[in-house]
Description:
Layout: E1 10-13, E2 16-20, H1 25-34, E3 37-38, H2 50-55, E4 59-60, E5 63-64, E6 69-76, E7 81-86, H3 98-101, E8 105-113, E9 115-116, H4 119-136, E10 151-152, H5 160-166, E11 178-179, H6 181-187, E12 194-195, E13 198-200, E14 208-210, H7 216-234
Antiparallel strand pairs: 1-2, 2-8, 3-9, 4-5, 6-7, 6-8, 10-11, 12-13, 13-14
Amino acid sequence: LVVKILNSEFLVHNSEIYADAGLLLANLLVEAVKLGLTGLEWAIGIPGTIGGAICGNTGAFGEDISGCVRSVEVLNCADASVSNFNKDQCDFYYRGSIFHDNSNLIILGAEFIFKEGDGETIRKKIKENAKQRMESFKPNYNCAGCFFKNIEWKRKGVDKDRLLKKFPELKQFADKPKISVGFLIDHMGLKNKRIGDAVVSNDHAGFILNLGNAKAEHVMMLVSMIKQRVYNKYGFSLEEETRLIGF
């Protein structure tokens, strides 16, 4: 069963916007720019709806949607109740939330709070982000975006001191919260690795592309191989950012 929220209205009050779950994230960004509100510049080029963005705590360039969420209106299918979750109750984490982990909770809408900003500065930042995104994600890509999560240093099982001592190539991430998964896969020499019509992108090693006739089994074989190679060298497992249905 796939639940698709069709409501896509929004209401504006000063620096706050209430948006239905079916509103496209891109449309919320457009409205924020019109109002001179800052906080969503990172979202340029990201597809999907508000509901999906909140569920997966969508983000880019070191920011995510939890940074501007004030509350979320939720339908609990277990008892048909509707309630508002404050930000803390949403249990946001890197690329996830309570809504990702509990299928009984359906997002109906959300209230966002932004800061007032300078319109020219906001538009300049959006252009910079768009340029950077286009360099790694071409419009004709047949893929679901970055397949794996970046590796948080604070993640259980990731020994920062050991890794930095043993693998000098990771020192560039020492002062950052995460290790780039694209860097790891590239460093393993797996760009352009292909199984069937599933291939690791040459532009961004975190992307797995469909060259035309890739099957799910080809993608999963490639994923399994990448995860095994990374684990064998670094001692930690990659986690999928893409949500897998039926596996």
